[in-house]
Design brief:
Elements: H1 24-36, E1 43-45, E2 55-60, E3 63-85, E4 88-105, E5 111-117, H2 118-131
Antiparallel strand pairs: 1-2, 2-3, 3-4, 4-5
Length: about 140
């Protein structure tokens, strides 16, 4: 189901709770909401739709995928950039890494480890920040 985007910094004021298999509908709703906003959005975190769970979704080219309870395990090649967000007005400066590795559960709640680079890595870092209560 497509959900409304919650606006404001208050949604990032606390760290997201770990997701469980009982949160499968959150994953589905988040993917549906991302697809409905693809013209203006490349990633979302569950708190952006009002659910305080550690779930993110990412649009990488033609692909869309979910990451449940993602944890960055390795990062390299630091750089500074500016990012915007559907939940916040304007852009903000932040530090990102060109290459990252992430442990997570996929949408079927199977353990995964992925290596990401470039813009996809940036999107993942942005959304994980949301789950950690970081306002970019």
């Amino acid at each position: 189901m497509v959900r409304n985007i919650v606006k404001g910094t208050h949604i990032f004021s606390k760290k997201a709770e770990p997701a469980t298999e009982a949160d499968r509908q959150v994953v589905t709703d988040l993917l549906d909401t991302l697809r409905a906003n693809r013209e203006i959005c490349v990633g979302m975190a569950a708190n952006m739709i009002g659910v305080n769970k550690s779930v993110i979704v990412v649009a990488a080219g033609p692909f869309e995928f979910a990451m449940v309870n993602p944890v960055i395990t390795k990062m390299s090649q630091e750089y500074r950039t500016e990012e915007g967000c559907l939940s916040l007005d304007g852009t903000r400066e932040c530090t990102r890494y060109k290459e990252i590795e992430v442990d997570y559960l996929d949408s079927d709640f199977r353990t995964q480890h992925g290596k990401y680079s470039g813009f996809t890595a940036q999107i993942i870092q942005h959304e994980i920040d949301h789950c950690c209560g970081v306002v970019i």
